[in-house]
């Protein structure tokens, strides 16, 4: 997927900055491939190294099922709403 390198670079910038947690909302996503999910896992590791966190909102059936099929619901911080994600990050 072409967005992955740009997304990875932005996550890296945010991790290096070290001042913000990151929330990603996948509810409107129409396509999520393993490259995007790998980017999230890498971003989470980078953010954690800088004492920050990543939360992923995935309440749509497509987003939730994609994450379940890859087994990442135990690896990523998956939330059903933005409010839940914000509470998790605070």
Note the topology.
Blueprint: H1 3-17, E1 22-25, H2 34-49, E2 54-57, H3 61-70, E3 77-79, H4 82-89
Parallel strand pairs: 1-2, 2-3
Describe what you observe in this structure:
The chain has 90 residues and is an alpha/beta fold. It has a single domain (3-89), classed as STAS domain (Transcription Regulator spoIIAA). Helix content is 54%, strand content 12%. It has helices at residues 3-17, 34-49, 61-70, 82-89, and strands at residues 22-25, 54-57, 77-79. Helix 1 (3-17) packs parallel to helix 2 (34-49). The longest helix is centred in the middle third of the chain and has 16 residues, at 34-49. The N and C termini lie far apart (31 Å).
What can be said about the biggest beta sheet? Answer: 3 strands, parallel
Tertiary shape = globular
- Report the strand count: 3
Low-confidence stretches: none
Q: Any idea what the CATH superfamily is called?
A: STAS domain
Strand ordering within the main sheet = 1-2-3
Average predicted confidence as pLDDT = 92
Q: Over all CA atoms, what is the radius of gyration?
A: 12 Å
Q: Give the N-to-C terminal Cα separation.
A: 31 Å
Q: Please state the structural category.
A: alpha/beta
The portion of residues assigned to helices is 40-55%
SSE order in H/E notation?
Answer: HEHEHEH
Share of β-strand residues: 5-15%
Helix count, DSSP H or I runs of 4 or more residues:
4
The CATH level-2 architecture is identified as: 2-Layer Sandwich
Total domain units: 1
> Can you identify the CATH class?
Alpha Beta
């Amino acid at each position: 997927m072409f967005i992955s390198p740009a997304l990875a670079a932005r996550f890296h910038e945010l991790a290096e900055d070290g001042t913000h947690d990151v929330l990603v909302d996948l509810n409107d996503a129409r396509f999520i491939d393993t490259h995007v999910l790998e980017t999230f896992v890498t971003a989470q590791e980078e953010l954690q190294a800088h004492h920050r966190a990543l939360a992923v909102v995935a309440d749509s059936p497509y987003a939730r099922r994609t994450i379940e099929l890859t087994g990442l619901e135990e690896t990523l911080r998956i939330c059903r709403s933005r409010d839940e994600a914000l509470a998790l990050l605070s």
